[in-house]
Design goal:
Blueprint (H helix, E strand, L loop, with lengths): L2 E5 L5 E5 L7 E6 L7 E5 L2 E5 L5 E5 L7 E6 L4 E8 L2 E7 L2 E6 L7 E6 L7 E5 L2 E5 L5 E5 L6 E6 L5 E7 L2 E6 L3 E6 L7 E6 L7 E5 L2 E6 L2 E6 L7 E7 L5 E7 L2 E6 L4 E5 L4 E3 L3 E4 L6 E5 L2 E5 L5 E5 L7 E6 L7 E5 L2 E5 L5 E5 L7 E6 L4 E8 L2 E7 L2 E6 L7 E6 L5 E8 L2 E7 L2 E6 L7 E7 L6 E5 L2 E5 L5 E5 L7 E6 L5 E7 L2 E6 L3 E6 L7 E6 L5 E6 L3 E7 L4 E7 L16 E6 L7 E7 L3 E9 L4 E10 L2 E7 L12 E8 L4 E8 L2
């Protein structure tokens, strides 16, 4: 039987059956004389760092009835424990490192001890050395082979060292206010920092298995790829519905987390992947935006105007033609054989690109404000104009484009515009997402809005969902099926700031302004997850997901031009027979009062989210989210909303969201 041993704070030591990771169950537990802070297991015993209760030795031969065999106090507030060669090593807050003989479980005894200068919080043991996360005392490297425990090196890492992990000859230290630091300890007498990820300074626990580093932080589990252990790459993350995480462990492809309410969370880790660049071309102009059609790409090339690029061989893009525009080229959109360029104070220019070797300006429209973004739908160009809102331009006669409608958005700065189903979707600041009815181009009207938690810089729309790059708040997936009342159904944090987004099929490509391109699986819109990264630095100004490639307009100091990456999914072959429903969903009793049990059956293991919405599609409550095994699962709904308030009598929908389909069941609540 597979078991997890959980140091569960005031609840003591808990033993959980994880033989079926999708449905963990509590086997047993034991209260301790202090809060369980850390645990190590060897054979039929668990050794628990129990705060001021010291080190507790627990007999676990019967997992349903663990017993305290012995213990030792006087270790300060014991925070962490590691085992090595018949000895237990414990760190105590503001007391240091203790080496304890546990050969007699009923009477463990201190062999050696060493006072450290700081607040010892975590430790690792490696051959002849101990590494102690000593809070503001830094990282202490201790020689265990000496007659007395002796500090041989103290590293001041610029902040409080909180927790540690290791792989190969590298140590990973989380330093408050500094980041996740990678330290080369190949020579423990001369350690040195080789890498730092500054935005990961809030991690609370680290665990390493093989080429994967799992880390927890308030509200989130993060996965980093250690293929190159000197340079971890964040590849995935998942939300956890709590800000207080107690412990983290990983085993057999799963991560196990216990939160402050002693809820046991299980995550399937999967494999992250790095996306390799196919090719690039430096166009030298300060690339701003890009769009594509077939094997051709069109680049808004800053002060050099419009560049036309041939991607027949994506590994060697060729500059076919270019033309200087009157002002800085910020954005470009296609309409048949014409490219429309937004160029700031000069409005828009219409360029004939039927001969890619000789693009030619055929029309110009002077517009109010400063044209920053443009999209074309049918014979209309929709322009985001700084200071003057949304402008709609008739380009049916390319030589004489004419302004036909406008909407001033008071106090808003429009960063991006897309058009779908007779509506314009605007990424604006400070509001977030603004939806405009453009079914009558001469009289556009505001229809709906959603205040996003960050600063919306980009938006893409596919079907009933809008994907918003919300700067420091990451990527949001927004349900716009009711444009009068959009709502966020899922989010994915980015390593730094989400600046641009493009979507192709079940995949979103997000440009992080400072750390490069990231690949996000949005097959389940409510469960977007980071699954890959492109090996590119920063300063991505535009992203386009074309028929075969992802195109990036990059404006870095040493490179200004176009980069080409592969799409992460190939063409799908049409089914030769009707597809089989991937799941069933039912509720009993129904109608109900006050609660009902929802049962869903999966044909195969899958990620899924179960929510309740009202009859208009508005979110009411989330019941479950995560990775589930094949077979039946059941979850109760108590007739309350996400805030815990009883909802009114009426019709509701239970919605099971899966990668390939959504399954719904009507619920009738009678009070």
């Amino acid at each position: 039987m597979d078991k997890a041993f959980v140091a569960a704070g005031s609840s003591g030591l808990l033993i959980v059956d994880i033989g079926s990771p999708e449905e963990p169950s509590l086997l047993g537990g034991v209260d301790l004389s202090g809060p369980a802070q850390g645990v190590a297991v060897s054979g039929l015993r668990a050794y628990v760092a129990a705060g001021y209760g010291g080190l507790q030795v627990i007999g676990i031969w019967d997992p349903s009835a663990p017993v305290v065999e012995g213990g030792i106090v006087g270790l300060g507030s014991a925070k962490a424990v590691r085992l090595w060669g018949g000895l237990a090593y414990v760190v105590g807050s503001y007391s240091g490192l203790y080496e304890i003989d546990v050969s007699s479980p009923s009477a463990p005894s201190i062999v050696r001890e060493l006072m450290t200068p700081g607040d010892a919080r975590d430790l690792l043991i490696d051959n002849y050395f101990a590494f102690v996360a000593d809070g503001y005392g830094g990282l202490q490297i201790i020689d265990r082979a000496a007659p007395d425990l002796a500090i041989i090196e103290t590293m001041d890492l610029g902040g409080a060292v909180k927790t540690l992990g290791s792989a190969s000859h590298y140590l990973y230290a989380v330093v408050e206010g500094v980041g996740l630091q990678v330290i080369d300890i190949g020579n423990p007498y001369s350690p040195h920092v080789v890498y730092n990820i500054s935005w990961l300074d809030g991690l609370t626990s680290i665990r390493v298995v093989d080429d994967t580093l799992c880390a927890s932080e308030p509200g989130r589990l993060r996965i980093l790829d250690l293929t190159n252990p000197a340079q971890p790459i964040p590849v995935a993350s998942s939300d956890i519905n709590t800000d207080y995480l107690v412990s983290l462990a990983i085993s057999n492809g799963f991560a196990y987390i216990v939160d402050g309410s002693h809820t046991f969370h299980v995550f399937a880790l999967g494999d992250g992947r790095e996306v390799s660049e196919l090719g690039s071309i430096d166009t030298g102009g300060g690339a701003q935006g890009v769009c594509s059609a077939g094997n051709m790409a069109y680049l808004a090339n800053g002060h050099l105007g419009l560049a036309v690029l041939d991607l027949t061989d994506p590994m060697q893009p060729i500059l076919r033609g270019e033309i200087l525009t009157q002002d800085w080229a910020y954005s470009v959109a296609l309409s048949g054989n014409f490219a429309c360029v937004a160029e700031g104070a000069e409005g828009i220019q219409v360029v004939d690109v039927s001969d890619p070797n000789n693009p030619e300006i055929v029309g110009t429209a002077a517009l109010p404000g400063s044209a920053k973004d443009i999209v074309v739908f049918d014979d209309l160009a929709y322009v985001a104009a700084l200071g003057d809102g949304l402008l709609i331009v008739d380009i049916s006669e390319p030589a004489t484009p004419a302004l036909v409608g406008s909407l001033v958005v008071g106090g808003e700065s429009i960063r991006r515009v897309v058009v779908a189903d007779g509506r314009a979707f605007l990424a604006t600041y400070p509001t977030g997402l603004l939806i405009v009815d453009v079914s009558s181009p001469s009289q556009p009207t505001e229809q709906g809005a959603l205040a996003t938690p960050g600063r919306a810089y980009d938006v893409e729309v596919r079907g009933s969902y809008a994907y918003v790059a919300d700067y420091e708040q990451g990527l949001h997936v927004i349900d716009v099926s009711n444009p009068n009342s959009p709502w966020i159904v899922g989010s994915a944090a980015m390593p730094s700031v989400a600046y641009r987004v493009a979507v192709s099929g079940p995949t979103a490509y997000v440009a992080d302004l400072f750390t490069g391109l990231y690949v996000v699986d949005v097959s389940v819109p409510s469960l977007p997850r980071l699954v890959g990264q492109g090996g590119i630095s920063a300063d991505i100004e535009g992203v386009d997901a074309g028929d075969d490639h992802v195109l990036l307009a990059q404006r870095a100091g040493s490179f200004q031009g176009l980069r080409v990456f592969p799409l992460q999914c190939g063409d799908q072959t049409a089914a030769t027979s009707p597809p089989v429903a991937p799941a069933t969903l039912s509720a009993q009793p129904n109608p109900f009062n006050p609660s009902t049990r929802l049962r869903f059956v999966l044909d195969a293991p899958s990620r899924a989210r179960l929510r309740v919405v009202d009859a208009t599609g508005r979110f009411v409550a989330e019941l479950a989210a995560g990775d589930f095994g094949a077979g039946e699962h059941s979850i109760d709904w108590d007739g309350r909303d996400a805030a815990g308030h009883p909802v009114a009598s009426g019709v509701y929908l239970a919605r099971l969201e899966l990668p390939d389909a959504d399954v719904t069941e009507k619920l009738v609540l009678i009070r």
